[in-house]
User: Fold C2H2-type domain-containing protein from Drosophila ananassae.
Amino acid sequence: MAANEPNRDLSRGHQWTARMPKDESADSPRLMCEFCGYRTRIYWNLQIHRRRHTGEKPFSCDRCQASFAARYQLNTHLERHQDIGERRRRHICTDCNLGFSSSRALYHHRPLHEDGKRFKCSQCEKSFAQAAGYAQHKRWHRQKRQRATEVKKNV
Assistant:
């Protein structure tokens, strides 16, 4: 196939752009989804992405009826079939021995053990180690202001 040959048929009627036209920059992604224009250099990312359009879900759970477009999605799902205690033993905080069911949850827990709290409230003296706690605190201030405004309107 020539470098700039536009499309080639794949199984089940899919097409893909093999290479971008020569006028594109050398560092731009080369593979493109024919359905929406999504671009990537990684072939398997494109294959998984295309399944969003086609509805293909080749990875099935042997315990229930769930199926998935990518193997990593199936693996994440399979963890849900495990006992919650078993899942929480997989990701342990080395500072406090608290267990989490995912590495992401542990990642978000870690700032609680840091000395400096990065998120400081500009309206009061409170500070927070995690963005989520700070966001919730800002909502509290906003709601407090709204309630005060509503009281003034009703007087």
Helices lie at 43-54, 71-80, 84-88, 103-109, 131-154. The longest helix spans residues 131-154.
